[in-house]
Specification:
heterodimer, A: about 375 residues, alpha/beta, 13 helices, globular, B: alpha/beta, seven-stranded mixed beta sheet, five-stranded mixed beta sheet, 14 strands
Amino acid sequence: MVQDKKLHIEAFSQEAFSVLADARHLKQADTLFSEHQLKAFYAKMFAARLLNERWLKLQRMGKSSFVAEFRGHEGIQIAAALALRSGLDWLAPYYRDTGMVYAFGMTAEEIFGQFMGSSLDPNKARQMPCHPSVKRLNIFTPISAIAAHLPPAVGIAMSLRYKKQAGVVLASFGDGATSEGDWHAALNLAGVQKVPIIFLCQNNRYAISVPLHKQTASSSIAIKAQSYGINGYHVDGMDILASYLLMQQAIEEAEAGQPVLIEAVVDRFGSHSSADDDLRYRTKEEKGWWLERDPLLRLKNYLKRRNYWNETWEGQLKEQLETELSKTLKNIEAAPPVPKAWLFEDVFADLSPHLREQAQELGLKL
Amino acid sequence: MSTMTQNVIDSPKSQSLIAAITQALDEEMTRDEHVIILGEDVGNRGGVFLATDGLYAKYGETRVIDTPLNEAAILGAALGMAVNGLRPVAEIQFADYIFPGIDQLFSQAAKMRYRSGGQFYAPMVVRMPAGGGVKGGHHHSQSPESHFVHTAGLKVLYPSTPYDAKGLLKSAIRDDDPVIFMEPKRLYRAVKNSLPLEDYTVPIGKAISRQQGDDVVIISYGGSMQESLKAGEALKAQQISTEVIDLRSLMPWDKETVLSAVARVGRVVLVSEAPKSLNFMSEVSASICEDILDSLEAPPLRVTGFDTPYPYALESSYMPSVNRILQAVQKVLDY
């Protein structure tokens, strides 16, 4: 089953594809990933975790109104970002994907600028926190409405094909999204149109508090792909190596005109958001079981086994990131306030007469 | 890409509103290869009203796309194409069927430019046959324009003549923002114009005076323009000098033209077949009262559909009739 150099991952497998928890694949991983690559995986996950932790602090300090943590999702998020090709592929993330957009190239300033509603946000501080995007990297602006980014993601994929542009679209969402009409609309259209798109479900089994068995009676999310005539894959999303290999295969398939659905099993270490308390519906025991499967911890153990990890290296990573973050936060604090004109601009390409008139109520001459 | 001259369709003297729409689509698709059409039955069938008749044969299935029966898919896909540089024209088969896809329009497309800080924008058009008068019952007759106007980020057009339909649709396709293009379905084949052979556009946001007068102003748009013009004719026969204004564009709307006519005449009747509460004409009325109250000789009166679901058998009682318009005119004259 495991061939030399290249692993072929079967669609619709009963068990989630895994490398770090599968002795057969693990042996092959030793030849598939270079030291440089493995350390880059770890460094990005580590940085994303740090970013998430800084968010929590800032939110508690009142510097931001909201946090949607992604701790526990780093394996699949960083794998996806690093497998995708910057400048070629598109990302249509959801609000828990900040680890992904960071690893895909968004700067800390762009991310924290958005997080803190600053004038340094490329989106002009118009959305609530945890909706970062930047056109430079083909990152489609996230939307709070669940699954509403999926039909447009298919449209982007249709436009890539129409314009004969290379690249794929990765559209990412949680398990709750699979119940939305827009989810069906998107997968159905993609199946018919056979466009280059990967649908990535980060299944953490909770839509805020509603558990997966109240979301769907389906035996898995991956299997739903069958009804759309596309391939469905099931992967351990807390295993970055498995996630990366599957992403590589999915990109190849999508680019050949076969849309793909990936179900990546992860855990949400935090609550749904800073406005939620997950101990109202989860037990400490359950959470503890998942914490032992921390994607960082698992890769660290693998790196240790191959002698690629040591405390000094991680310490240097941390120091470097802390320095960079402090500088970024200083820049954001020093940035000019959000201009009042931004309230009225960008409703349309040009300011229409009625908005010009309304702006006068605030004493603005636009 | 083909040149304009290859594309011009010989215009016989009189063209229907639906033919004007087909011509606009055809000419824009020839002019710009980024223009594509998507919707239900728009392909081989040519659309249920034949708006896209012949375009599938001419441009093929990559540019005239029959989609699954799902409005969220149509509108969402159109948005995605638009943000990557295409100029999709989506057809919603009836305005009444916009609702299953409304999140794509209201939460996504309308806010795209604003949400992304101007990084992404959506040059897309959503065409839809709207309004009553075809014995279509609740779900083939409604006038949902107020919903669209109430959602920041959408432009809303509602022509009443073939000339305007063609010129405004071209403007809509060339516009860089999402445009809702409402088509008065009962006038598809009921009104005819001769159309210029050369390329032309009608500007978005400009009303037009269809009849000039000094005693009373009737303002309307879309399907109700027919009854408004007939009322204008009837009043003229009674020596009542009537100005009849066609708004054509509801967002943005031409406040300047409206206020200047109403300020000059002092009496106004506002006609729209949509339900009365929060009818677009309520906005026009409020603007008139806020800005030029002193020049009014009578309160502005609305003649509209009623706050009921759209009826079937009693459709003609629901729609603003010439008689109801004349009664309202009498009231503002007698005030």
